[in-house]
Specification:
With 419 residues, the chain is of the alpha+beta class. The chain folds into three domains: 112 residues, 2-Layer Sandwich (Phosphorylase Kinase, domain 1); 183 residues, Transferase(Phosphotransferase), domain 1; 80 residues. The chain contains eleven helices and twelve strands. A six-stranded antiparallel sheet has the order 1-2-3-4-8-7, with helices on one face. The termini are far apart.
Amino acid sequence: MNTYNTLRSGTLLQGKSYTYTIQKVLGQGTFGITYLATTQVKVHGALGELETTMQVAVKEFFMRDINGRDENTVTTGSKGDIYANYKKKFAREAENLSKLKHPHIVKVLEYFEANNTVYYAMEYVEGGNLDNYIKQHNGLPEAECVKYARQIGSALSYMHAHKMLHLDLKPGNVMLRKNGDAVLIDFGLSKQYDENGEPESSTSVGSGTPGYAPIEQANYHEGKDFPVTMDVYALGATMFKMLTGVRPPEASVILNEGFPAYELQKHHVSNTLMAQIAKAMADKKKDRPQSVDAFLQGLGGKIPPRKEEEEKTDYKKEKPVKKKEVKPTVITDDKETNKTTAKYDKYIIIGLLIVICVIGAFLLMNRNDGSREYTPYEDAAITAPAEEKEEYVTSPVEEDYGEAYADTAAVVMDSVAVW
C-alpha cells in the first residue's frame, strides 16, 4: 500500500475521552488517512471495574493534494483557506456521523482536533473491505450481491432520512464484519442538509470516485434540492462491481457508449437484475429510481442463481415425484353377473328339455311300433302250446335309448335344482 505523510506507529493522539496509540495505516484516500489504533477503556460491573485494551480505527482529515506534515502537525502551504473550509466540513460531519445509530453504519466513539486537523475514532471492523472480498471471489453470486445491496441500501436510506448524503459509496468504503454483515464507512465526502434541503456547509460536493459517481456530481452546484439520486447511482455501480469483479466505466463513457450490459451478461447476470442496475446508473437523474428505497423495491424477490453456480451446486435437488397413474378399478356387480348367468342357464335348461322331449317322443314311437310287431305273438300265446310261447326280450337299441333317456333326465333335474 502506498502511503504519503502518515503518522508513525506508536504516535499518541489525545482525544476528548480517550488516548489513542497509532499501530499502522489501514488506508489513505484523497481526503483522509485511516489508522488502526488501540485505546484503554474501563468496563464497569456490579462488583467493580475492569480496564482493557480495545482496537479502534482513527480517521485523520488530510488532503493529499494540499497538505504536508511537519513531524505530526499537518501543514497547508498557500491553500490554507481551502483546507480550513474542508476541515470545518469534516468536523461537522464527524459530529453528525456520531449521531447515526444503524447496524450497517460504522459506530463513532468521538471526534476531536489535534495536530492542526480533525480526527474521529470509530469501531474497527476486522473482516476486511468488500472490494478485496470481490477480488478474492472474482465476482459474487446474485443472491450475495443483493444481500449486501440491501444492507448498504438500508444504511443509505437511514442517512437520507437524517438529511445526510454519503457521496463516496464504493466497495472500498464498505467493510465486512466476521458474521458477513456489511458496514458503511468513510464519510469524508458526506454532506449534511437542513430540513429545507439546503447544505449546512458552503463547500462544494466532492467529485467522488470515477466509475461510482454520476456525471453531474463533478459539476454539481449546491442548491435547495437534496440529490439522493447520486447515492442511488453509486449503489448501482457498487452492485456492478460485485457481480463482474471489474470497476464500472466512468459516467462520461456510459453517456457516450451506453450502459455496458455485456459485462453483466458475460457473468450470466439475470435480465431482471441487469435492468435494475442499468436504471440506477442512468445518465439522467430523472431516469433513476428517485430514492434508495424505490431502487431496493425494484430488486424484487428471490434472485435466481447463475448458470455456473447451478452446475457447481453440491446439494441434492429434490426430484419431482411422479404421480403413479391409478387405473380405474372395474367393480363387478354380482347381482348383474348372477342375472346374466341365470339367463343363460334358463336357455340351456329349456334347450335340454326340448332335446329330452324329442328323444322321449322318438323312444315312444319305437316302443309303439314294437308292441304292434309283437301283438300276434301275444295272441298266439293264448292259443299256442306252452313250449311255443316266446318271451319278450328288450332290444339293445331300446336299452341304449332308455339309458340315455335316464341320464339326460338326471342331468336336467340337477340343472333345475341348481337353477
